[in-house]
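Tokens in:
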């Protein structure tokens, strides 16, 4: 049984934060604050730490028990974890890491100094040392980086009674254990034994008679996204990981690890679309935040300057027909929204592996068709509204045509930007919102003002 209360018994996260903040404001005794922190689940302590400014965060961190530091560090957002690790000495970091399992240490290792990682490896028992080296050998974003080694195996020639005795000999089952992994004499995976089958079956039967021989198998080299799709498609709680060559069981992936990966990737995608290179601590020093944000702001500044030069090239036209100044942001704005819709859909489909190389032409043809329909409908309505406002049929026609052309441009760029970035091995989500807005702004201004100059002046 967990030493912490269940989530239903724990106070609301916000209430936990308010309680800690209140005691900090009242300058409560350290013992009182420490007692409050000791009652909280590691994830809740992490939530409190992430919501506090740097000085108060460090004060709270100093009150956390040493044996809990490792599990709390695992729960923290990367930027906050880095800020706390920077304040810890080597001895403290090694002690915190030694309280974790091998796969958990591997998750923490990228944020630890190399010397600390080596010290941790040397301090571990031989068996744990081998597991940690194996976990560290897998690239980030692969199944190997997600898997843990806390699986339960049974032999296929054993009886269900023997399997049951194996379970009863344990202090507790590993988290998210819904099945046992059936192996042969050389540890090759033969199948899985769901606990539901074990419970209802005659204990005198052999495991081989009851097991599920065909199960979802993952390879350490598989993409983590592929594992996430398998878990969603087949409603898995756990899945075995087998060596590609030997077929031997090397670990398992649980739904908890998959959910963490999905959450992290979703957050990374949202940040990347806004031009942020990584997650940012909301209380980070000004210089750190500046370094995280400046690159795409600089790119946005360049694109905004280009858009201003496009407008500047038509200053004479705007001077002769002032209505153009009021109408041109509409064309650019609608184009930007449409382009963001397209690019969001394409980036998501790429992440899910739904777009094959041979179908890009069909995809862009479909998006251009959608843009044409939207352009005819909404461009027509906007053109009519323009006519009603200004009593100028030609201006209404220019508005409708400009809307159609800019929506076609937005659709084309909404497919082309992620395609080209993926083609050259770059993250298609990074800066996508900035790039599509730049294209539709400059393109929208040029199309609208160019048509107005051609047909109205």
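Residues out:
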């Amino acid at each position: 049984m967990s030493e912490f209360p269940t989530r239903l018994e724990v106070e609301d996260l916000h209430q936990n934060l308010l309680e800690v903040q209140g005691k900090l404001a009242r300058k409560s005794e350290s013992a009182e604050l420490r007692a409050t922190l000791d009652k909280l689940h590691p994830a809740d302590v992490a939530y409190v730490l992430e919501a506090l400014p740097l000085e108060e965060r460090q004060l709270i961190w100093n009150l956390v028990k040493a044996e809990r530091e490792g599990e709390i560090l695992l729960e923290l957002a990367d930027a906050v974890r880095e800020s706390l690790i920077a304040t810890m000495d080597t001895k403290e970091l090694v002690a915190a890491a030694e309280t974790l399992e091998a796969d958990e240490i591997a998750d923490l290792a990228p944020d630890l100094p190399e010397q600390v990682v080596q010290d941790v490896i040397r301090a571990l028992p031989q068996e744990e040392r081998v597991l940690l080296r194996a976990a560290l050998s897998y690239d980030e974003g692969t199944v190997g980086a997600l898997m843990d080694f806390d699986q339960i195996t049974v032999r296929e020639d054993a009886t269900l009674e023997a399997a049951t005795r194996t379970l009863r000999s344990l202090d507790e089952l590993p988290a998210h254990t819904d099945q046992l992994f059936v192996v042969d004499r050389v540890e090759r995976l033969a199948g899985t034994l769901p606990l539901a089958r074990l419970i209802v079956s005659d204990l005198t039967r052999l495991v081989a008679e009851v097991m599920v021989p065909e199960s979802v198998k993952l390879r350490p080299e598989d993409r983590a996204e592929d594992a996430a799709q398998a878990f969603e498609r087949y409603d898995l709680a756990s899945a075995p990981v087998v060596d590609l060559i030997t077929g031997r069981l090397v670990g398992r992936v649980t739904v908890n690890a998959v959910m963490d990966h999905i959450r992290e990737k979703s957050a990374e995608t949202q940040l990347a679309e806004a031009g942020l290179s990584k997650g940012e601590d909301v209380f980070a020093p000004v210089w750190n935040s500046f370094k995280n944000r400046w690159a795409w702001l600089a790119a946005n500044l360049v694109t905004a300057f280009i858009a201003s030069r496009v407008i500047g090239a038509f200053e004479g036209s705007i001077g002769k027909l002032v209505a153009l100044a009021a109408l041109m942001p509409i064309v650019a704005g609608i184009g930007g929204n449409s382009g963001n819709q397209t690019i969001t859909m394409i980036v998501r489909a790429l992440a899910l592996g739904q777009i094959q190389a041979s179908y890009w032409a069909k995809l862009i043809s479909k998006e251009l068709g959608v843009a044409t329909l939207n352009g005819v409908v909404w461009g027509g309505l906007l053109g009519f509204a323009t006519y009603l406002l200004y009593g100028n049929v030609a201006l209404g026609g220019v508005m409708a045509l400009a809307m159609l052309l800019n929506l076609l441009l937005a659709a084309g760029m909404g497919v082309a930007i992620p395609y080209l970035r993926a083609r050259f091995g770059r993250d298609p989500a990074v800066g996508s919102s900035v790039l599509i807005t730049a294209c539709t702004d400059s393109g929208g201004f040029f199309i609208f003002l160019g048509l107005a100059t051609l047909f109205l002046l």
